[in-house]
Amino acid sequence: MTKAQISELKAVLSTPKNIVIVPHRNPDGDAMGSTLGLYHYLKLHEHNAVVIAPNDYPDFLKWLPGDDTVLKFEAQQDESEALINKADLIFTLDFNAFHRAGHDMAEILATASATKIMIDHHQQPDDYAAYMYSDVKMSSTCEMVYNFIEMLNDSDKINENIATCLYVGIMTDTGSFRFPATTSRTHQVIGNLIDKGADNSQIHNNIYDTNSYSRLQLLGRAMQNLKVIPELKTAYMTLSQAELDEFNFKKGDTEGFVNYALSLKGIIFAAIFIESKQDHIIKISLRSKGEFSVNEFSRAHFGGGGHTNAAGGKSEDDMKTTIHKFISILPNYKQDLS
Q1: Which residues, in sequence order, are CB contacts of 256 under 8 Å at separation 6+?
Q2: Residues 171 and 258 placed together within one structural domain of the fold
Q3: Are 107 and 132 in contact (CB under 8 A)?
Q4: H-type helices in the chain, by residue range?
Q5: Residue-wise pLDDT tens digits, 18-66
Q6: Whole domain around residue 62: which residue ranges?
Q7: Which CATH number fits the domain that encloses residue 142?
Q8: What is the pTM for the complete model shown?
Q9: Where are the alpha helices (DSSP H) in 76-159?
Q10: 152 and 265 inside one domain
C-alpha cells in the first residue's frame, strides 16, 4: 500500500462510514483477532462498523472482546446481506479471494458497490480491492493490522481491546512465535501490545488451556491413525466422520493436530485428512518445514493454498481415494522432499 493510498484512506476514514469487516470461512485466531482488532479501532473513530463472519468459529475464540457483536452470515444471511449492500467500505482480512468466504457470501461481496480494502498475508491475491495491503512475508494479518493503524499515525489509539485481539492472531499464526515468519519486528509489536494491555499469560490460557476430555480422546485417535513414509520424509493422519462423531467433535477440535505429525524427527511434510459428511468433502491441512511449499502442492493437487509452510485444501473423493491420490503424488516431489 503506497503512501498516497494511505493518505487517501486516512481522508476517507476521517468521517463516519458504514463499514463491514469480513474474515474467511471457518475463521481462526488470526482471522477473528484481526477483524475484531480493526473493529475496535474503527469504533474509536465513530464508524458504524460490524464484523460479519461467513460461519461460526471455535469456542476458544469466543471470549475475544467484541465477540458478542459478530454476525454469522450463514445463520443471519438477510441481516448480513443488507449490511453488505449498504456499506461504504468493506475490509476483507486474512484472505485474498472472495471464494474463501464461501460461495453464497462470495457472490454478495463481489457485487457489492462498497470500496474494497484487503489486508492479508497469503500468496497470489485476487485483484478485487481498490486498496490492497498484501505481504506474504508477514507473520500474520494481525501484525499487518497493527502496521495499518501505525501507517494512519494512530498507534497511540491502540487500547486493551485492540491489543488483546491483535495479540491472539499473532500468537496463533506464529505457533506461539516459533514459525519462520516471526521476526524481531514481530516481537517488538508483541511487546507494544503487552504494554497496551494485552495479558499474554491469560490470552495463552484462554486459547490453549481449554481442552475437553473428548478433544484429547480425538487427538489420541488421530495419533493412532498416524502413518509415516520415511523415504519421503512425510507423515499423515486421518479422521473419519465416524471417528469425529464418536468423540463429540466440535468446531476447532482438530486445530493443531497436524503439527504433531510435523514434529516427528526427520519429517518435513505433514498432512491431516478430515472427513466432512456435511460438506461432502475431505478437508486437508498441510504443514512443512524449510523450503518445501505446501501452498504450491495444495494449489496443484487439492484446490487450496495458503503459505509456503502452512496451507489447506480439499478433496471431493472419499477418504480411501484421497489418500491413494496423495501417496501417488509424493514420488513426484522426492527431490524436493529430500
Answers
A1: none
A2: no
A3: no
A4: 3-12, 29-44, 77-86, 103-111, 141-151, 160-173, 184-195, 200-208, 213-224, 241-246, 257-262, 294-301, 319-329, 334-337
A5: 999 999 999 999 999 999 999 999 999 999 999 999 999 999 999 999 9
A6: 3-208
A7: 3.90.1640.10
A8: 0.91
A9: 77-86, 103-111, 141-151
A10: no
